[in-house]
Amino acid sequence: MNIPENLRYTKEHEWVKLEGNIATIGITDFAQRELGDIVFVEVESIGKTLSAGATFGTVEAVKTVSDLYLPVNGTVTELNALLSTVPESVNNDPYGAGWMIKMTVENPDDVAGLLDAAAYSNLVG
After folding, report:
1. CA distances from 1 to 32, 94, 104 (A)
2. What CATH code is carried by the domain that includes residue 20?
3. What residues make up the domain containing 101?
């Protein structure tokens, strides 16, 4: 299982890459494997300011639909447009082409409070 060292993780299986106060967010390799073939990603929170833990969208797989949770407080600014036509990018490249949203983070220090790769690896076994 791929768990990049340079990212932070949530217990709900989202990953976060922080650059300045802009965070790129997606779901982990573990999450996409558990969900199976992803057929649709829906995000209706563009432009909205949300609190950590709030639902920012859903991901639909062949066998289930799962909520997506914002890892830190901030404003959702962008959806990965590729996912509207190639949602399987989340399965094929969860940490690259399969990213889901970008957001402006209220407090970048909050990202440091998320799980590092070792802690996430322990979580998923």
Report:
1. 11, 12, 29
2. 2.40.50.100
3. 8-105
Q: How many domains does the chain have?
A: 1
The model's pLDDT over 10-66, given as tens digits with 9 standing for 90+, comes to 999 999 999 999 999 999 999 999 999 999 999 999 999 999 999 999 999 998 999
Please report whether residue 124 resides in a domain. no
Please tell me the pTM assigned to this model.
Answer: 0.95
112 lies in some domain: no
**Eight-state DSSP code of residue 123:** H
Instruction: Give the containing element (helix H, strand E) for 34.
Output: helix 29-35
What is the pLDDT, as a whole number, of residue 1? 82
Whole-number Cα distances in Å, 47 to 11, 31, 36, 58: 25, 26, 29, 17
Residue 111 domain-assigned?
Answer: no
Q: Which residue has the tokens 């920012």?
A: 56
Torsions phi, psi for 17 (to 5 deg): -120, 120
CB atoms within 10 A of CB 35: 21
Alpha carbon distance 52, 36 (integer Å): 26
Q: Is residue 113 situated within a structural domain?
A: no
